[in-house]
Design a protein that fits this description.
CATH superfamily of the largest domain: Immunoglobulins
CATH topology of the largest domain: Immunoglobulin-like
Order of helices and strands: HEEEEEEEEEEEEEEEEEE
Structural class: mainly beta
Largest sheet: 6 strands, mixed
Strand content: over 45%
Oligomer: single chain
Number of domains: 2
């Protein structure tokens, strides 16, 4: 009995991966502030020990611009979880399916990347945590087009490649303009400027239907700052240099 119990709770080493993202193949904003996402990803046990019914699959869905600017991470600041209902051995796969409504839309169609990240957790039998570079295959990525609600854009080649948020001039001396192509169902968005020590030096609230905002930075000392634009599930952070 003691030998069996010890085996049942022995530490396991499992190489878990995101093998393929089947869908979405594109995103379509149904409204100016809503985008449904139907995710279907193939997860695979590549090597190591078996996974058991009752183990937990943790996963997160991320949208990024083609320049790796974060658009949204779902769920925000956490992970979704689901339970395995059957044992899995080396080479076995499972489909991860989830329908999500992102409370964000875009005003201009864009090429983006959708990413699915997954890790295998456990409830009773310990699993050795995967660490880099061993977990490099835990993140799957796929280039897709995110269309605005009008579906504007003749072909993929015509889709705009602009960043979601643009800050100019940069470097700046007294005023900067912040332009964005994202709309959201939230009532307003916040623009926060941090110094190199992470202290908030400027903070402004902007109505959701405004797509260009002037920010007075004349009172800031010369140096490097971070500008964060946040609206619901959408966050953009960019560097801003102030010169005197």
């Amino acid at each position: 009995m003691f030998t069996m119990a010890s085996a049942a709770f022995a530490q396991r080493t499992i190489d878990w991966s995101v093998d393929e993202i089947i869908s979405p193949t594109q995103l379509n904003s149904s409204q100016s502030n809503q985008t449904p996402i139907e995710v279907d990803a193939v997860l695979k046990l590549v090597s190591g020990d078996s996974a058991f019914a009752g183990d937990t699959v943790g996963y997160q869905i991320v949208l990024r611009s083609t320049t790796d600017q974060l658009i949204a991470a779902l769920p925000n600041g956490s992970v979704y979880v689901r339970e395995l209902h059957k044992d899995m051995g080396v080479g076995d796969t499972m489909h991860l399916k989830r329908n999500i409504t992102l409370n964000v839309g875009i005003t201009a169609s864009n090429n983006i990347k959708i990413q699915v990240m997954s890790i295998l957790l456990n409830r009773t039998n310990p699993i050795t945590p995967e660490v880099a570079p061993g977990n490099a295959n835990n993140l799957g990525s796929k280039n897709i087009v995110w269309w605005n609600k009008q579906g504007w854009g003749v072909s993929v080649a015509d889709v705009t490649l602009n960043d979601i948020v643009t800050i100019y001039p940069n470097p700046a001396t007294d005023n900067v303009a912040i332009d964005w192509e994202i709309t959201s169902g939230e009532n307003n968005r916040t623009v926060t400027v941090y110094d190199i020590n992470g202290r908030v030096v400027l903070n402004e609230s902007v109505n959701a239907d405004v797509f260009s905002q002037s920010l007075n930075v004349e009172g800031l000392e010369a140096g490097m700052y971070m500008v964060e634009v946040k609206n619901g599930e959408f966050t953009s952070t960019q560097k801003l240099q102030i010169m005197k």
